[in-house]
Every structure is written in C-alpha cells, then in structure tokens.
C-alpha cells in the first residue's frame, strides 16, 4: 500500500506506467474485469512491483484518477478577479472534455451523489482549496461555503457521469460554473 517513497523518480515512473496501463485496460473492459496479471503485463512491471505500490486495483484506479481530481480543483480556481458567469475557465472546459472518454472508469469510482473512493478524494481536495482561498480573501463562512462547493461539484460531476444530468461537456462546464459562482456569492449572516 504505497510503501515506496513518493519522491523517488522511479516510483513516479512506475506509478505512471501502472496508471496508463489501467486506463488502457479500462478502455476495453470494466474495472471489475481487469486482472492484476493483465495490468502488470501491459505495464511491463512485475506483480510484486504492483503490490509494492498498491494494495489493490481500486487503490491504483483512485490514484490514477487523482490527477484528474487535481485538475478539477485547479480548473475551478483558475480565474482571478471577478468571475464571469458566462465564461467558465478554459481549464474547466478541458476537464469535462478530458474525462468523458474515460467515463466508465470514473463511474466505478464516483457514485451518484458524489460518494465513492474518488468522490472522497475530490471532496477533500476541493474543500481544502476552496476554504483556503475564501479564508485568504476574508470571505465569510469559509468552512460552510467550502463544504457546499465541494459537495456540489462532486455530486454534479458524479450525476453527470452517471447520466442523471443530460449535457455535453461544454454545457455542463457552463452550468457548473454558474452554480459555483452563485454559491460563492450567496449572502451569509
């Protein structure tokens, strides 16, 4: 379970190989049908190497998708000044377009409503970033608004991936952007 030092370049390369192999395997079959044997063969690493880095395939999947989570967090905070509700940051549009081809894998890790192992990571990262930025700006209720932003984004993303919200990637990016701006603007006592 992630026993290797994370700052080691070899560790980063091995995890990148395993992550890429997982995305390639999941493009052909659901995560539940992917075997460690097929994955390590595709990645060109040994089975023991896999278990040195990850406890199981779900742990690898969450780690491989964590970069997308971080992109989402960065995308939501890519603007400066007064946000334009009609113009989401380009990074937010790119985020939604980039995850669409791997939607099946994300659906396995992010359940409707935003729960699941990836939902937990997304919520924690987004809440921490939002809270920090609100606190630095002196905005009221940084804890409350940060929780609302994180829960809203994770829930909407998950519901969109599961087909509960009908929208193209650009449409959902615009809708999410307006929703989050309104959450930040909500007057609080």
Give a verbal description of the structure:
This protein is mainly α. Helices cover 68% and strands 0% of the residues. Helix 4 packs parallel to helix 7. The longest helix is centred in the C-terminal third of the chain and has 21 residues. The chain is elongated, with a radius of gyration of 18 Å. The mean pLDDT is 88.
* CA-atom Rg in angstroms: 18 Å
Low-confidence residue ranges: none
Q: Strand percentage, roughly?
A: under 5%
Order of helices and strands: HHHHHHHHH
Please identify the structural class as seen in this structure. mainly alpha
Q: What's the total count of β strands? A: 0
Shape: elongated
Helix content: 55-70%
Q: pLDDT average, as an integer?
A: 88
**Biggest sheet, in brief?**
none
Number of helices in the DSSP assignment: 9
N/C terminus separation: 45 Å
Give the topology, please.
Layout: H1 9-26, H2 36-43, H3 47-53, H4 57-76, H5 90-99, H6 103-109, H7 117-137, H8 142-161, H9 169-185
Summarize the structure.
By secondary structure, the chain is mainly alpha-helical. Helices cover 68% and strands 0% of the residues.
